[in-house]
């Protein structure tokens, strides 16, 4: 039997190239913002830093989306290939079995017509019966659960709301971002991105000089979402906010505690805490 005409195996999603292009544009913007940091006035430096941080997080999330889409496409490819091989295997076995049965019928009839021939059996002999039954196909390889979200994954609604708030933050629309982040936390307080949203909420206050509200937001993030990826960042900014509120002793204490409290924090965060301590004249 001729092989079935199968559609081309699944390729990466059509928008994968667009995602990569968007990622490249974001990376270029990050480079430009880094270069601009050395030329802006001190008052604008905090805003530039915040926009840069938001953009870098978007890049990390975009990279994750690309990797997830690529992995999903590869899993679908594997499942389609297995399905194709499985189906063709079964059809070939069925074709072979049909050929055996069709070839055996005339021989049985001829035997019945011949003198002294034994009567034709009413059913195929055991060997023929065995041949007519397709054998089990070889075990499939690959597969798994392509694209199935893990329980820890954010819902599409949460991702949309979070990306919208982060976009406002990146564009410097801090009032807008504040409202969107508050709405996100109220609606998706148990989402895995809630800790990130709480941190960015604190940043909207910090960049506008509302250090008391910033300190409260960062402290709330540390207490409510202690396991968040942004917990070390919140702790760092809590110390910086306290120093800006003329609570130098408390701020210095927080910054000094960061490396031991968050031993797994990135070296960037630890180095920043050390620089802020020196800048504030902490003991």
Automatic annotation (TrEMBL):
Role according to the record: Mediates coordination of peptidoglycan synthesis and outer membrane constriction during cell division.
Pfam families in alphabetical order: TPR_16, TPR_6
Cellular component terms per the entry's GO annotation: outer membrane-bounded periplasmic space
Family: Belongs to the CpoB family.
Coiled-coil features, chain-numbered ranges: 45-86
GO annotation (BP), single: FtsZ-dependent cytokinesis
Subcellular location: Periplasm
Segments annotated as TPR repeats: 195-228
UniProt key word Transcription: no
Biased composition (Low complexity): 106-120
Signal sequence residues: none
Name of this protein: Cell division coordinator CpoB
Highest taxon in the source lineage: Bacteria
The keyword Ribonucleoprotein is annotated on this UniProt entry: no
């Amino acid at each position: 039997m001729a092989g079935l005409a199968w559609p081309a195996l699944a390729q990466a999603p059509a928008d994968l190239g667009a995602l990569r292009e968007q990622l490249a544009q974001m990376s270029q913007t990050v480079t430009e913002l880094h270069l601009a940091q050395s030329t802006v006035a001190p008052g604008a430096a905090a805003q530039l830093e915040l926009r840069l941080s938001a953009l870098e997080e978007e890049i990390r999330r975009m990279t994750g989306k690309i990797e997830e889409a690529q992995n999903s496409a590869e899993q679908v490819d594997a499942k389609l290939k297995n399905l194709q091989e499985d189906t063709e295997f079964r059809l070939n076995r069925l074709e072979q079995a049909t050929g055996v049965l069709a070839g055996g019928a005339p021989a049985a009839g001829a035997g019945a017509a011949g003198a002294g021939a034994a009567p034709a059996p009413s059913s195929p002999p055991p060997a023929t019966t065995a041949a007519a039954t397709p054998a089990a196909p070889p075990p499939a390889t690959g597969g798994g659960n392509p694209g199935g979200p893990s329980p820890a994954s954010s819902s599409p609604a949460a991702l949309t709301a979070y990306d919208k708030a982060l976009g406002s933050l990146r564009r410097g629309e801090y009032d807008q971002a504040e409202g969107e982040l508050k709405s996100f936390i109220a609606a998706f307080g148990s989402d895995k991105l809630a800790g990130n949203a709480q941190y960015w909420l604190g940043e909207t206050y910090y960049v506008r000089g509302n250090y008391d509200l910033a300190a409260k937001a960062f402290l709330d993030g540390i207490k409510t979402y202690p396991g968040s990826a942004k917990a070390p960042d919140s702790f760092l900014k809590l110390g910086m906010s306290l120093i800006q509120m003329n609570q130098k002793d408390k701020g210095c204490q927080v910054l000094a505690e960061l490396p031991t409290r968050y031993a797994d924090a990135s070296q960037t965060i630890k180095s920043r805490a050390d620089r802020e301590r020196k800048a504030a004249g902490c003991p």
